Amino acid sequence: MDLSVPSHANIEHMIEGIKTKLRMASGAAMQASAFSLEQYEDIHDVYEMVINKPNLSISEVEAVVSELGRLRKPS
C-alpha cells in the first residue's frame, strides 16, 4: 500500500493500524469516515509515529487519541 498517495482507503488503513496498535477498546468510535483528506498528512504523521514505536506509554496513547479527536471532521 502506497501511503504517500492521499486517499480514503489509505486513511482507513492508517486509522485501523492505529486502533490495532493502541488496542483501543472503543475502536468503533474511531471511524475512518470521520476524517477528511485535508487532514491526510497529519493522520499519516500520527500513523508513522504510532507504528514505529515498539511501545507507547499511557500518556502517549492519550495524546494520540486526543490528536485524532482534533483531526476529526466536525459533526
Automatic annotation (TrEMBL):
InterPro entries tied to this protein: UPF0435
Protein name per Swiss-Prot or TrEMBL: DUF1128 domain-containing protein
Pfam families: DUF1128
Record organism: Paenibacillus farraposensis
